[in-house]
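Example A, followed by Example B.
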Amino acid sequence: MNKLFAIIKREYLQRVKTKGFLIGTLLMPIFILGISFLPALMMRSNLGESIRLVVIDETGQLFEPLEAAFSEIKNGKGDAKYQLSQLKSGESLEQGIVSLGQKVNAGELDGILVLPRAILENNQFQYHTKNIGNFEIIQTVERTVSGVVRSLRLNESGLDVELVKKLNNWVSVKTFKIGESGSQEQRAEISFLFSMIMGLLLYMMLILYGQFVMRAVIEDKNSRVVEVILSSVKPFQYMAGKVIGIGATGLTQFLIWVATAVLISMYGLVFVKSFAPEVSQLVLPQVSPWIYVAFLAFFLLGYLFYATLSASIGSMVNSESEAQSYQWVVMMPIILAFFFMFAVNNSPNSLLAVILSLIPFFAPILMFSRILAEAAPLWQILISFVIMILSIWGSLWVCGRIFRVGILMYGKKPNLPEIVKWIKYS
């Protein structure tokens, strides 16, 4: 047992002390902070920015109501965000666009609105700008012009514009999630995004740390370090030490990320709201501590299952290029589980979702997704745990036999019949 702990300690410290681990561990919290605070800071920096537009109104009817409609759009400081002026020169349409386009290029204007005479019939107008990638401005312009044209049509038809607007008001929905403590308001898209982020994080960690195990075994095998180590420990102890030591590295990284996420969820939204009051209605999903416990449990179970497969692959080959022909055994089930996650999120109580979440290759991701959706009863979670533990024991038995022979084999890459012989006779 002391030898096993020595290998675990060596693998853990060897990776935790590297610059790559420190940089990777710190970059994730910085990334989380960035996506949380940068949009608010950018909103704050653009509060006083005005959009200068020149309107070429060939109808002679739209500029004044359009100017009134744009004046109601305010920036963060409460001032009009859009400043409109009308081209009244005797230039032709083409000449006007050319002369105004020069001002847009020079930064004196932000855009040109061309409202042709046929806009009331063909429902089309033109917007000329230097930055066509700013979808927010383009959508605002399109929505505002459409509203003005619609109002003009209603006036010409003799209908009451305000009454029609009232009758056509969009009905919005507030979503509430029902839990043991009752109903709590949650935005559906935010809950879905949270489940996707957690599922993606689990998916990435299973792939990443499985690859770490495989590479570590290949490196030790090529450097002949393994021959020295196996002179004092059993092959199974060496494999277990590799798997547990690298897994402890991933667990350390995960705990740091969770602590960062908790701090951001507790204090980050207050900071964001102080800079961007428009997000004051944002409701973050309520995350139970059991969700983090479930994430940790399924990460450990999934990691142990896939890491043993990765260790056996690393023991069979002599280089990473050789390992590529076997990596699909580990990679494909994880990738399939990630794609199945979308279907499971849509219908977490379906028979297909239940069956897939109990298959050990898919359970770490899919059962966790069902737990996030609060769709997995306790007995199914316990069955999943039992199946995963039995699968880990089986994979340890099979991969241990492969590892015992393969770790000291050099030269030709083994084929499937040879691997079966290793399992049968080792």
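Example B, a separate protein, is given below in the same form.
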Amino acid sequence: MVMLGCLFFVFGLVSWVNSILVPYFKVACELKTEVQGYLAQFAFYIAYLVMTIPASALLSRVGYKKGAMIGLWILALGAFLFTPAALTRTYNLFLLALFTMGTALAILQTVANPFVTIIGPIESAAKRISIVGICNKAAGILAPIIFSAIVIAPNKAKMDLIQSGSLVGADKEAALSDLLRGVIPPYLVLGVLLIVFGIVFYRSSIQDINPAKASTKEGEGRKSILSYPYLVLGVLALFCHLGTQALSVNTIIGYAGTAGVANTTIFPSLTLACTLLGYFLGVILIPKVLSQQTTLKICTSLGLVLSILVMVLKPEYSIWCLVLMGIPNSVIYAGIWPLAIHDLGKWTNLGSAILVMALCGSAIFPLIYASIADASASLHTAYWILIPAFAYMIFYAFAGHKINKW
């Protein structure tokens, strides 16, 4: 659990800094539309959709423990790619770096989630997921703050001058170059640390496991992974959940700016702090006070209520509903995963990989949001997509996870 907690800390450190990379790239790379900005999110998270099945095949070949080391080294490669991207001021190279990091996380998530689910009783899986989730979101709180302090704060004056149009010609080009070079030192350090952690993880005492053999059932004679409705429906529920979570964290800086808030960069950390609070509640309450299913029902319903409030309240108030959405969002992941993965038998490995693919919701939802925002010229209006997403999650919490046959 300690090693897995460190692994989830790495996930959070790498993933949640994207919330502040989007507005940073919009200035430093002179992006013109919301969609262009959120391509950074898309490139990172679409790797979960494209690369998870190959990642599963890799893990079947080399094992989970060695696969984790390979994943961490690929993650380091993505971090190192930030250097040539910054030096050449090439946005597409930044996107390639983010896709490489997303590919690494596709491998690592496929390793980590089955470990957390299987190493103890299925009834308390949500509690264990909450524990590693605390590590993930603690890193998520720190990542934007560290990035802002190291990269944005020293260059804030230049960013303001560029956005105001005060700089032109050679002065503007020099300022843009300085902005992008600011990402080189932290990502170089991150890359080195990831290589070291990969070696430490591989040489640790953590044991390889085979999820298929760890299951007490052998797949009940079903011919295909798609013959498990609760898994297929769970993938869609997880897709919606991760999409809504990405919106509540990664779009909040831009939305806070429209609400007239001065210090906008603090909001992703506030949202993740609420998520951290939700994880602590999950550790305390599950399964002694509340079952996984009951917790999921409560959290999805609360998410829908907050989504409606986001739409009906003015921006200066609805921004706090997005922050509070971190509390229910924390336990939804922990609630859906064990309900979708149970009793898959020999299909457990592939089922875990398909569930990890649902993380591409974090890529697709922000693009949909950005498209609506561009079309309607309103960031507020674009949040309507939260409502049907939470409505579907409520269906899965109350009924979808019980469907055992099509």
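On Example B: Residues 2-204+222-402 form a domain with the Growth Hormone; Chain: A; fold (CATH 1.20.1250.20).
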